[in-house]
Write a structure and sequence with these properties.
The protein folds into two domains: about 80 residues, 2-Layer Sandwich (GMP Synthetase, Chain A, domain 3), CATH 3.30.300; about 170 residues, P-loop containing nucleotide triphosphate hydrolases (Rossmann fold), CATH 3.40.50. About 30% of the residues lie in helices and about 25% in strands. The strands form three sheets. It has a seven-stranded mixed β-sheet, sandwiched between helices. A three-stranded mixed β-sheet has the order 3-4-5, covered by helices on one side. The longest helix is centred in the last third of the chain and has 16 residues. The relative contact order is 0.15.
């Protein structure tokens, strides 16, 4: 007795992806099932950055298929193909950018830029092509966060080549001005600068563009929600009541413009004493 395609599908239904919490058949991750005598071959497509997940899932699939009757050889190809997700209606998509994630906060000083750069680096570590746009025109910090110095090149005099740091493409107004130069600009100039940085940068096949937003709910946030295709927003806050109050305002703003909230990060929630190790 040899296994059939239906037997293979039933075996794959028993394997649940720990990240999506859906089995490989229901999520349509299992593809191209081939059964030839005692040889079984199957492809598993993961729609998210999955470098650390590929081997564990592959081993689980092989183990499940080897238990089927009459199986001699099992070939499993697990790979990632990061999907584009829906954005707000009526917004023009960005070329070479599949998904845009904004990291925002209602109040400054809560660790928003640190969260944004760590999110970008974590996605890159899992095999995604990631870009970082520093939208905090008044206080750009991503050049320092990513350890990048110098000026971006402009081969045609019209567009900018993104800088590179730790495997992440990055652009910031901080690359175009001196470190100590203040940006004394009115709102319209700031929003125009943001649009130019976003649309006139030659992003190279990005799975994710992470945008480090300025604090508050001002002109830049309104421009972003109306003109930039945003996949979702991450809100950063600290446990203090004042910070939470402003974080709620930022959350409500994104909800009003139809941008999904991917999550809320509570930063600086625990203090550990460096002398005694006591946490509070």
């Amino acid at each position: 007795m040899t296994a059939t395609v239906q037997d293979v599908s039933r075996a794959l239904e028993s394997i649940v992806d720990p990240n999506t919490e859906r089995d490989l058949v229901t999520s349509k991750a299992a593809r191209n099932i081939r059964v030839e005598g005692g040889d079984i071959a199957v492809d598993v497509e993961l729609g998210y950055p999955a470098r650390s997940q590929i081997d564990p899932i592959r081993r689980r699939v092989i183990a499940a298929l080897r238990e089927l009757p009459g199986v001699a050889n099992v070939s499993v190809n697990v790979y990632q193909k990061i999907q584009s997700h829906s954005v707000q209606r009526g917004v023009k998509l960005l070329p070479n950018v599949r998904n845009v994630i904004v990291v925002a906060s209602g109040k400054g000083g809560v660790g928003k830029s640190t969260t944004a750069v760590n999110l970008a680096l974590a996605l890159a570590a899992e095999g995604a092509n990631v870009g970082m746009l520093d939208a905090d025109i008044y206080g750009p910090s991503q050049p320092t966060m990513l350890g990048i110095s110098g000026r971006p090149e402009s081969p045609d005099g019209k567009t900018l080549e993104p800088m590179q740091g730790h495997g992440v493409q990055a652009i910031s107004i901080g690359f175009l001005i001196d470190l100590d130069t203040p940006m004394v600009w009115r709102g319209p100039m700031v929003t125009q600068a943001l649009e130019q940085l976003l649309r006139e940068t030659n992003w190279r096949d990005l799975d994710y563009l992470v945008i480090d937003m300025p604090p508050g709910t001002g002109d830049i946030h309104l421009t972003l929600s109306q003109k930039i295709p945003v996949t979702g927003a991450v809100i950063v806050t600290t446990p203090q009541d004042i910070a939470l109050l402003d974080a709620r305002k930022g959350l409500k703003m994104f909800e009003k413009v139809g941008i999904p909230i991917l999550g809320v990060v509570e930063n600086m929630a625990i203090h550990t004493c460096t002398n005694c190790g006591h946490t509070e």
